[in-house]
Design goal:
The two termini are 22 Å apart. The chain is built from 11 helices and 13 strands. The protein has helices at 24-35, 54-66, 90-96, 124-133, 153-168, 182-190, 201-205, 229-239, 257-260, 275-285, 292-304, and strands spanning 8-12, 16-19, 40-43, 75-81, 101-104, 136-139, 173-176, 195-199, 246-248, 312-321, 326-328, 331-333, 341-346. The radius of gyration is 19 Å and the shape is globular. By secondary structure, the protein is of the alpha/beta class. It has one domain (8-346): Alpha-Beta Barrel (TIM Barrel). Helix 6 (182-190) runs parallel beside helix 8. The structure holds 2-OXO-1,2,3,6-tetrahydropyrimidine-4,6-dicarboxylic acid and zinc ion (2 copies).
């Protein structure tokens, strides 16, 4: 494949449909990395405390915009954190300030999700309003029952939560975020046009062996956790299929190195500094570089009803080493693949 690989790859500028940037000094350290690659990104609201109101989302958006380097065009797309107590009219306020979605975190499912939804029925009034307003529901699709095996939580979510939810809200737009299993890929493939899914670079490149390669490797630990090889292959198939239901969402989730390399290490892979390069690697390995632009640049805006970007980016076939460590507020952060060589580089 190396011999026939093109020397450069030009794409319509992509967007990131699932991103964590935190707040304060940490945010200022990571926003430029995403803004260098993507025109827009959906900003996840799992701060402490979470972004639950339109008013908080406006203020958070202003703080993010202030962290974008001068001369760089980057638009944060805001998402509100759904709780048991979100009032139904928050949907209209969210729409009015330009938010694109609400995020469903089953309480306790992932980082900073304690304030999440304990019972979906408590959110039905606001879900009705969202369906009416055409707002998207982004879902972290894992059940939280500690009795359920951590590798089975996504599948259990489909049966126990997603199927009943779609029965009750057939015209609610739902993005099944960061899918990790062949069952989720199949479910989304067979669903109607209201359902889409994002796929992360780590779930396209790695299976669960990566977490245990010669020792515990905390930088490969994220939620939902990496699965078996058969699942990775199904995700690659979905992402490279040309189906507009699957699009790019890095789930880049920065944590200081000392909190990942810890007795109770945080979940999340920091991929923002080399996100599009990682996707290019995954698509190239599948012999499907020609499918990257649809996945990275077209299907996301089409699903969200936003215009496609018009400028372009170029990736060059050029070896480079991802920095082992980068500044992260007062701390440091290790990106996924830190210290390792990548074969594609954004020009
Ligand atoms: N997964 N870490 C985080 C969020 C995601 O589920 C997610 O979206 C985070 O740190 O915010 C993670 O592993
Ligand atoms: Zn999630
Ligand atoms: Zn996330």
């Amino acid at each position: 494949m190396t011999d026939t690989a093109p020397a450069t790859l030009t794409l319509t500028r992509p967007d990131d449909w699932h991103l964590h940037v935190r707040d304060g000094a940490a945010m200022a350290s990571v926003v430029p990395a995403t803004a260098a690659q993507f025109a827009r990104a959906i900003i996840m609201p799992n701060l402490r405390p979470p972004i639950t109101t339109a008013e908080q989302a406006v203020a958070y958006r202003d703080r993010i915009r202030a962290a974008v380097p001068a001369g760089v065009a980057f638009e944060p797309l805001m998402v509100l954190y759904l709780t048991d107590n979100t009032p139904a009219d928050e949907a209209a306020r969210a729409k009015a300030m330009g938010a694109v979605a609400f995020k469903l975190y089953p309480a306790g499912a992932t980082t900073n999700s304690d304030a999440g939804v304990t019972d979906l029925r408590k959110t039905y009034k606001v879900l009705e309003a969202m369906q009416r307003e055409g707002l998207v529901l982004c879902v972290h699709g894992e059940v939280t029952d500690s009795e359920v095996d951590v590798f089975d939580r996504e599948n259990a979510f489909i049966d126990d939560k997603l199927i009943p939810l779609r029965r009750d809200f057939p015209e609610l737009k739902i993005v099944f975020e960061h899918i990790t299993t062949k069952e989720a890929a199949q479910y989304v493939t067979e669903a109607d046009r209201f359902v889409g899914a994002t796929i992360t670079p780590q779930h396209l490149l790695y299976n669960r062996n990566a977490i245990f390669m010669g020792g515990v490797r905390p930088h490969y630990y994220c939620l939902p956790i990496l699965k078996r090889e058969e699942h990775r292959l199904a995700l690659v198939q979905a992402a490279t299929s040309g189906s507009p239901k699957f699009f790019l969402g890095t789930d880049s989730a920065p944590h200081a190195s000392h909190l990942k390399e810890h007795s109770s290490g945080c979940a999340g892979c920091y991929t923002a500094p080399c996100a599009i390069e990682l996707y290019a690697e995954a698509f190239e390995a599948a012999g499907a570089l020609d499918k990257l632009e649809g996945f990275a640049s077209f299907f996301g805006p089409d699903y969200y009803g936003l215009p496609r970007n018009t400028d372009r980016i170029t990736l060059a076939r050029e070896d480079w080493v991802v920095p082992e460590s980068l500044p992260f507020g007062e701390a440091v952060i290790r990106p996924l693949r830190g210290g390792e060589t990548l074969r594609w580089r954004l020009r």
